[in-house]
Amino acid sequence: MKTKCETCPLRQLDLFEDMSRDEVQFMSRFKTGEFVAQPGTEILAEGASSSHLYTALEGMGLRYKTLEDGSRQVVGFVLPGDFIGLQSGVMGEMKHSVEATTRMTMCVFNRSDLWELFRNQPRRAFDLTHVAATEEFLLGEMLAVVGQMDGMAKIAWVLNRFFRRLTALGLNENDQVPLPYRQQDIADSMGLSLVHTNKTLAKLRGKGVATWANDVLTVHRPDQLADLGYSTGLGAARRPLI
Amino acid sequence: MKTKCETCPLRQLDLFEDMSRDEVQFMSRFKTGEFVAQPGTEILAEGASSSHLYTALEGMGLRYKTLEDGSRQVVGFVLPGDFIGLQSGVMGEMKHSVEATTRMTMCVFNRSDLWELFRNQPRRAFDLTHVAATEEFLLGEMLAVVGQMDGMAKIAWVLNRFFRRLTALGLNENDQVPLPYRQQDIADSMGLSLVHTNKTLAKLRGKGVATWANDVLTVHRPDQLADLGYSTGLGAARRPLI
DNA sequence: CGGCGCCTTGAAAAGAATCAAGTCTCGTGG
DNA sequence: CCACGAGACTTGATTCTTTTCAAGGCGCCG
After folding, report:
1. Treating both helix axes as pointing N-terminal to C-terminal, what angle do A183-190 and A194-207 enclose, rounded to 10 degrees?
2. Alpha carbon distance B139, A139 (integer Å)
3. What pLDDT does residue B230 have?
4. Would you call B194 an interface residue with chain A, using a CB distance cutoff of 8 Å?
5. What's the predicted TM-score (pTM) here?
6. Per-position DSSP letters for A207-234, written without gaps between them
7. Interface residue A49 vs chain B (CB under 8 A)
8. Distance between CA atoms of residues A65 and A75, nearest Å
9. A136 and B136 in contact by Cβ < 8 A?
């Protein structure tokens, strides 16, 4: 267990809310260890009832649902600071799968300790609900984008979101952020075909707005990219870290 | 305040989880009154920070987001038993609007009392998180449907969901359930145009699978309707009532 | 009676999916 | 060391689902 809650590098970021000394102490006990997932590994499976919950420390992954006909809907991307397994924790089973895209390091919590959190740490319980509500909000945004916008706007929106979020995580260097996903992942998240996604990315490249290659997204015209998508609120909103 | 928590008609339903005597007592104090919204009324506005939270007792409504370009995405339908305002309660402001479609009666709670709930009623706090997670799950389902399925499957899925949910609420009489929405509402929820929605409904009617007219949905072939959509899990799952 | 909201239907236009190759990189094994 | 295959990215051509445009009908309320 290399990373101590007391010195958690994520909590230092402006993106995340502060925590009282008491809360940090509690989290330190709540955290039972660390877990490293290799690229391509399934962390939680849809329908599974995990006895562990996680918070992503490093690396990226994705959440997805598999439909009967074999198609896949990506319902979210897991970035450092994201909580994993809440549905399993409160509803008994996961409603989507979570897979590591890159190598991921995660804090591990015991589901059985969750009840103690609700009983003794009302503030943390509130934060957990906050996280759930934030997740709901994000899905609502995605739904609005997937349901109402055309291909170009969808792609621009998702790239812009990545750019802003990764920047907030301190991963922006010269308008470049790491983006280790495959085009198929983006396509499955926006409800587009791989081919159409590819062609739309090519257009953005051609326009000189943004380039995504070799797992790196370069945004040349942040303003134009934002205009093409739709201004999602909650850009700078701080969120609790679990 | 006509409806007492002690004799809440919703809690009698199998759909909702039981509550301890102590919890009922707490809820009774938590509930500060009732509110009736007339058809077409906006109950909560996107971006607003409401000092009240609600639970729908009677009637139906819908949740929606308005995009810059004027288009609208319906992100959910409010049916009896649904909690309204959770985002406002924990995140400070609503991320979507809520509008009454029919006349609606709602239990009213004070947002300022929410903290007491977290402090003194861990079980209720857990349930609230459960509600948030359920909401997240539903949005995930919707996203998968909107993102991956074609028009016919989308319409079949949403009609089937209404049919099952309203049946669980005891509103099914002879395979007929009340469905007081407009076609435009369904179209906006599934990311389809009004015209296409209309034509798809006509097809379902022609096939003799389901008929929706005069605010009443009649399902002639429940099995076929289910086959056309996609089997959403959590059909009979009980949920907490707030 | 007139207007408005909602439902219905046909025809044309367009955006996106599908089909079909072909390229490039990288890791593996002969 | 190089051939080979897998996986991901590109691109052009074709097909088709869905949208947009247009118009008419029906029921209800002032």
Report:
1. 110
2. 6
3. 82
4. no
5. 0.95
6. HTSEEEETTEEEES-HHHHHHHS---S-
7. no
8. 7
9. yes
Q: Is the CB of B176 under 7 A from strand C?
A: no
Residue A168: pLDDT band by 50, 70, 90 thresholds?
A: very high
Sign of CA dihedral B27, B28, B32, B34: positive
Q: Which residue of B129, B184, B194, B231 is the best one to mutate when testing the A interface, meaning the one whose CB has the most A CBs within 10 A?
A: B129
**Contact between residue A67 and residue B148 where contact means Cβ atoms under 8 Å apart:** yes
* Residue A123: per-residue pLDDT: 96
- What is the per-residue pLDDT for B232? 72
Q: Which of B143, B146, B190 to mutate to test the interface with A (most CBs of A within 10 A)?
A: B143
**Residue A195 CB lies within 7 Å of the nucleic strand C:** yes
Which nucleotides on strand D sit less than 7 A from a protein beta carbon?
8-13, 17-22
Q: Which nucleotide is nearest to B206 (CA to C1')?
A: C8
Q: How far is the CA of B160 from the C1' of D17 (A)?
A: 23
Q: Does A228 touch chain B (CB under 8 A)?
A: no
Cβ–Cβ < 8 Å for B235, B164: yes
Total residue count of chain A as it appears in this document: 242
For residue A233, pLDDT over 70 is answered with no
Return the domain boundaries, chain A: 5-143, 148-236
Chain C positions with any atom < 7 A from a protein CB: 6-11, 15-20
Write out the CATH class of domain A5-143: mainly beta
Could you tell me which residues are beta bridge partners of residue A172?
A: none
* CATH number given to A148-236: 1.10.10.10
- Structure tokens of A86? 């809440």
> What three-state secondary structure class fits A60?
coil
Instruction: Give the residue with minimal CA–C1' separation from D10.
Output: A198
Q: What is the pLDDT of residues A5-27, one digit of tens each?
A: 999 999 999 999 999 999 999 99
Buried b (16+ CB within 10 A) or exposed e, A89-106: bbbebbbbbbbbbbebbb
A193 touches chain B (CB under 8 A): no
Test A144 with B73 for CB contact under 8 angstroms: yes
Q: Please name which of A144, A161, A179 lies closest in space to residue A234, comparing C-alpha atoms.
A: A161
User: Which residues have a Cβ under 8 Å from the Cβ of B241 and sit 6 or more positions away?
Assistant: B8, B10, B11, B16, B17, B19, B55, B81
Could you tell me whether strands A61-66 and A72-78 are parallel, antiparallel, or unpaired per DSSP bridges?
antiparallel
Question: Within chain B, which residues score under 50 in pLDDT?
Answer: none
Who contacts A168 (Cβ-Cβ below 8 Å, separation ≥6)?
Answer: A13, A14, A15, A236
pLDDT digits (tens, 9 = 90+) for A77-133: 999 999 999 999 999 999 999 999 999 999 999 999 999 999 999 999 999 999 999
pLDDT at position A234 is: 59
Strand-strand pairing, A216-219 and A176-178: antiparallel
